[in-house]
Amino acid sequence: MTSSFNVHDAAGYEQLMGRWSQKLAPLFINFAGVSDGEKILDVGCGTGSLTFALAKAADLGEIAAIDYSPVFVAEANRRNTDPRINIRQADACALPFEGGTFDRALALLVLHFVPEAGKAVAEMRRVVRPGGLVAAAVWDHLGGMPGMRMMVDTVAALSESGRQLRARYCFQPMMQPGEMKRTFVEQGLVDVKETQLMIRMDYQNFDDYWTPIAAGEGPLGKYVATLDAAERARTSAAVRDAYEAGRPDGPRSFANVAWACRGITP
After folding, report:
1. Could you give the domains of the chain?
2. Which of 36, 60, 136, 236 has the smallest C-beta neighbourhood within 10 Å, fewest atoms?
3. Other CB atoms within 10 A of residue 38 CB
4. Which residues lie closer than 8 Å to 78 by C-beta, 6 or more apart?
5. Strand, coil or helix: what is 254?
6. Closest of 60, 199, 186 to residue 117, by C-alpha
7. Which residues make Cβ contacts (< 8 Å) with residue 69, sequence separation at least 6?
């Protein structure tokens, strides 16, 4: 298995993260660059946030998209109406394409869920032509996601299993400053540049924030699903208290920072 991301339902993922990856996608495309006529590969397409944003960004010749999850592939195919886009199930660490096929290979919010992230970068480099570009972005779980740290810090204060969750969550692959850049260089990419991209996550109320997590979506939802009924109720109440922060329930806005990196295939 080459993805540690936990997904049950496409709609639940959209509420948890898809709506935010849609906001991040245009910033990432601007950083990675695209030009008319190019062939682009979207590695780990999810429900299509980057795939469909690419289709709007330029008059591209072809967009290939892959994901490890059949749930994501089915949903992205259901949404697709663009003949330039081809979506299939595949492994980021064993891409089903010939070398030098694409002008660019992009991965949005994927590499931190790939245990062998370096191998995925190597595969992206392999399928991109000389002079083409490889780019990726991952959330900064440790220092750049206060809305999610709010939950993991709360559960860490409640139990040892919560502390273990925090240790895993904050130090997934590619998340530390300079880590992706080093990996890109190690995999032979040149002119490597790293930057930060920021959006805001805006929630209507606590239920808007908590419902997909309570339903078991994503790494935080996977943790909640392991709790018994009493612990789940205790956790929900504690996270609600953190969300509300002494004020009535309602809208909250959190800054969200991603590390982004790009490099050229020699």
Report:
1. 10-264 (3.40.50.150)
2. 36
3. 19
4. none
5. strand
6. 186
7. 3, 5, 7, 46, 89
Nearest to 18 by CA among 57, 52, 47, 44: 47
Tell me: the pLDDT tens digits for 119-168?
A: 999 999 999 999 999 999 999 999 999 999 999 999 999 999 999 999 99
CA R_g for the chain: 18
The one-letter code for the residue type at 243 is: Y
Whether this model's pTM surpasses 0.70: yes
- State pLDDT tens for residues 205-224: 999 999 999 999 888 999 99
Choose among 96, 168, 175, 107: nearest CA to 135: 107
Beta-strand runs (E) in 125-189: 128-139
Question: Which of 53, 196, 41 has the alpha carbon at shortest distance from 121?
Answer: 41
